[in-house]
Design brief:
This protein is of the alpha/beta class. It has two domains: 156 residues, NAD(P)-binding Rossmann-like Domain (Rossmann fold); 198 residues, 2-Layer Sandwich (Dihydrodipicolinate Reductase, domain 2). It has eleven helices and 15 strands. The strands form two sheets. It has a nine-stranded mixed sheet. The radius of gyration is 21 Å and the shape is globular. The N and C termini lie far apart (45 Å). The N terminus is likely disordered.
């Protein structure tokens, strides 16, 4: 068993070795939306010798200029909106870093202009995700969704364990996570207003928790959902000592839970929170006919696991626990890998590293939870053909 673990660790080490990037062909990149998440994108783009950041757009006057000045990137053409930028510039790719409600419009417009798109999570707010997928299909361009936890070696290990058959047939999954006190308002109210965010904890960190397990089991189609959402904390003025006025602006969920039926007879029990009185709503558990996997939760979603995972199984008829050690990320970082894998697909004509065909199901579940909560009953998840 020990040698087997060492072999797996060595394999991940090999996968994360630094390689040479061909800089003979520069990719012309634009950034749509220059808020705080755009800072993470530009940080990684600046490390890549085959990238030239040539354009940026933001609705707030002067914000794009200030953004590129702050990050020391000169010669960038800035625009007041995504349309004027895409109409004026010849680009290879864009990062869409706007607030949630603008994701679909910006991604569709870029794809329709023949530009490859790295779209930040959540994919969008509703099943307008279908329109994004149709635009992608029509354009023939690369669309990748910003799920950097996919590149964490521990997340990959979860998928390896499931695919190995060690758990047998998966029939029940419990997943979620959250923060005891973590409604994201340090940069204003973009995350909490309905007109900009559309959805709250569901889209911010819930999509990550869903992807962790759905990606591991091959993204089966969601069939039905009974969903619940609430906003007991975000609507309290005392939650924001410095900005009690935020409570009146809060228009999204700060907690959500759901019972989802998936193809293949799999049940998904889900919960996510921006705020609660617990330290965690529970570990992630995958139950199978041969064994079960426990994935420790984190205090605040950080793209990895909260400690060593355990496989519970029988060995020679004896109940046994096999500890899976936490794997260290030896790469240049998860965000770097997210962007690099996207650019490699653009340059080499490869497949999207985080394909929309998968995240469409993720988005359908989120949309279904919101709809079920409003309806107060179970609903069928219906996804139109692309």
């Amino acid at each position: 068993m020990e040698k087997k673990h060492l072999g797996i660790l060595d394999q991940f080490k090999e996968n994360q070795e630094t390689r040479t990037i061909d800089s003979s062909r520069k990719l012309r990149v634009g950034i749509i939306g220059t808020g705080w998440i755009a800072g993470a994108h530009i940080t990684e783009y600046k490390k890549m010798p085959d990238v030239e950041i040539v354009a940026g757009a933001d609705l707030i006057p002067g914000k794009a200029d200030a953004f590129f000045k702050k990050w020391g990137v000169r010669g960038v053409h800035t625009y007041p909106d995504h349309k004027s930028m895409l109409d004026s510039e010849k680009l290879d790719a864009v990062s869409v870093c706007t607030y949630n409600q603008a994701h679909a419009e910006c991604a569709i417009y870029a794809l329709s202009h023949g530009v490859n798109v790295l779209l930040e999570k959540p994919m969008c707010v509703t099943l307008e995700a279908v329109d994004i997928c149709r635009a992608e299909k029509k354009s023939g361009k690369i669309l990748s969704i910003g799920f950097q936890p996919r590149f964490d070696p521990n997340m990959r290990m979860i998928k390896k364990i499931v695919e190995s058959g060690a758990l047998g047939k998966i029939y029940y999954i419990q997943t979620g996570g959250g923060r005891r006190k973590g409604i994201p308002t340090p940069f204003g109210t973009t995350f909490i207003e309905k007109k900009t965010a559309g959805i709250g904890a569901l889209g911010d960190i819930g999509c990550y928790s869903l992807d962790m397990v759905l990606n591991a089991i091959g993204y089966p189609k969601p069939l039905t959902v009974t969903g619940y959402t609430s906003a007991f904390f975000g609507t309290r003025p005392d939650y924001y000592p410095d900005h009690p006025e935020y409570a009146k602006l809060f228009g999204v969920d700060d907690f959500a839970a759901a019972f989802v039926r998936l193809e293949g007879g799999i049940i998904l029990d889900f919960r996510i929170a921006w705020a609660m009185h617990l330290d965690t709503p529970g570990d992630t558990i995958l139950m199978g006919t041969k064994g079960s996997l426990r994935i420790p939760s984190t205090e605040c979603w950080n793209g990895s696991v909260g400690g060593p995972m355990k496989i519970y199984h029988d060995v020679a008829g004896v109940p046994t626990e096999t500890v899976i050690p936490v794997l260290e990320d030896k790469s240049q970082g998860l965000f770097y890998q997210k962007i690099r894998s996207f650019l490699d697909a653009v340059k080499n004509g490869g497949k999207s590293p985080v394909p929309s065909s998968q995240i469409l199901y993720n988005q359908a579940i989120i949309d279904g939870i919101a709809k079920s909560s409003r309806a107060g009953r179970e609903i069928q998840i219906q996804i139109p053909e692309i």
